[in-house]
Amino acid sequence: MAEPASSPVPLLHEDLLDYTPTQRSIPLARRRAARLVAEWGQQGIAGDVALVVSELMTNALLHGSVRGRLIRVHVTLGHRILRVEVSDPRGELPPRPRPAGDGGADQFGRGLLLVGAVAARWGWEPRTVGKTVYAEWDLPGRTPPTPDPVTAGPSPVHAAGAAEGAPALQDPPETA
């Protein structure tokens, strides 16, 4: 007999947006994430979220972009965790922090060290095509709100089409 599937913890807020792999997408993603996190009542970490989105978007642009494929930013707020994910189409280069050189001559390679310094944890997950790099923040203990059965519904997901007609970054459907 199969175990009953446990239902996932519902999200309080969720935002998902695909960006073209261009330099101008980095400040757009950074500002959007910081604004949303502040609107969601997490003003204290909005600056850290902006820094992390900027670093992960920059890494995706420099090391994970492929012409014609998009970079996805997914921000979720649960009852105890805020999570930022940046997905790109190249999975063969896993992210690795590099130690800074003694002389300060290395001007690149410190982004993941910054991410690790401001987030509770970070990591990466392979995708069918590409990878997702994430950072998470633990939130102070919150009591989950009791949903009103009349007004309760799915969490809103903000998704926008991408500019320049590029196809969205998607995993193909699984087959049984």
Please describe the topology of this protein.
Layout: E1 13-19, H1 25-39, H2 43-64, E2 71-77, E3 81-88, H3 111-118, E4 121-126, E5 131-138, E6 157-158
Parallel strand pairs: 1-6
Antiparallel strand pairs: 1-2, 2-3, 3-5, 4-5
Radius of gyration: 17 Å
Strand order of the largest sheet: 4-5-3-2-1-6
Percentage beta strand: 15-25%
Distance between the termini: 19 Å
Topology, number of strands: 6
Backbone structural class: alpha+beta
**Count of discrete alpha- or pi-helical segments spanning 4 or more residues:** 3
Principal-axes shape call: globular
Summarize the helix and strand pattern as letters: EHHEEHEEE
Q: Main β-sheet: number of strands, strand sense, barrel status?
A: 6 strands, mixed
Unreliable spans: 144-176
Explain what this protein looks like in three dimensions:
The chain contains three helices and six strands. The chain is of the alpha+beta class and 176 residues long. Strands 4-5-3-2-1-6 form a six-stranded mixed β-sheet, with helices on one face. Helix 1 (25-39) runs antiparallel to helix 2 and helix 2 runs antiparallel to helix 3 (111-118).
Summarize the structure.
With about 180 residues, the chain is an alpha+beta fold. The chain is built from three helices and six strands, in the order E-H-H-E-E-H-E-E-E. It has a six-stranded mixed sheet with strand order 4-5-3-2-1-6, with helices on one face.
Features:
176 residues, alpha+beta, 6-stranded mixed sheet, 3 helices, 22% strand, globular
